[in-house]
Design brief:
By secondary structure, this protein is of the alpha+beta class. It is built from 5 helices and 13 strands. It folds into 3 domains: 44 residues; 175 residues, Cation-dependent Mannose-6-phosphate Receptor, Chain A (Distorted Sandwich), CATH 2.70.130; 78 residues, no CATH class. It has a 5-stranded mixed β-sheet with strand order 8-9-11-13-12, with no helix packed on it. Strands 4-5-6-7 form a 4-stranded antiparallel β-sheet, with no helix packed on it. Strands 1-10 form a two-stranded antiparallel sheet. The protein is elongated. About 16% of the residues have low confidence.
Length: 316
Amino acid sequence: MSFSHRILSLLCSVAISFLATVVCVTCHASTQTTTTTTSVVAKQSVGLLGGQMPLMPSHVISGNGGVDGGSSVKCQLKTKKGLIDMSALSKTSYSFSDSKNYFHFFVSVCSNHPTLCEKQPYPSSYHLQLAPGQCVASLGRLSQTKILGIEGDSDGSQGAVIEYWGGQKTTGTGSEIRTRIVMNCDKSLKDVPVSKLEMKLVKDEEVDGVIWFHFQMSSAQACPGFGGSSGKRGVLGVGGIILIVLFSLAVLYLIVGSAVMKFKFQKEGLDILIHREYFVLVALLIWDGILFVFKDGLLSLVYRATGKNQTSYEQV
């Protein structure tokens, strides 16, 4: 082989080696890029409290979760301890940030929040902290509100759970986003205005194809027997209803009877009262009963306590 042939052969070997090196470097870079992207996506799916930012709306969110027409729903739960009525909380909206200050949450209790998401009202949503007004996702619909008892609480003494279903879905897995608010009963907060109560994000997780955002709040309105805007109150029972009906009938009886006595029988003064003698007699009998209980009865107890004897007049 001539010298020139050897030089040409050496140059060809160098060129082939160079091309092979470039191809290997390119493949390695591509593999690193793919691995890095996969790693980022995997970390982002951990959630807010895992220290990672979840995927942005263009990557993860599909649709707006539907639109509701109403502004509030019934916010009550019947328990063995009594009725839990959280209606007073629906008049106040709550907003707060996650622990990393990545996002701002807007959550209401049994009502739509005044802060809109994609120009629509929702009871729960979250927005970018650094871009106010840019909604990431709705976390449920008011029309799919569920009021439940706290797991392990058999009588309702611990409070209630509010869930919003029907939120937006992820494009990759189609996982529905939902809200769960644990309302803890705390009677010591009965004098605290509902606007001063605090709600916080506890965690977010994916369970059986559903992404849950867990919130927590303590309030006296979450206790049985408390509720409405006036705090503690009872529930009107059958006896109360019967008394109201009887009182209304008695008033109607007196009004109609008095009208008949005046316009038909031409009575004047106290004579227009129908069956006046009967009612006067009943009033006197009631007065005698009061005197017997609070005068004669108390005197008898005093004599017994002091050991004194009653006079013949007092005994009569």
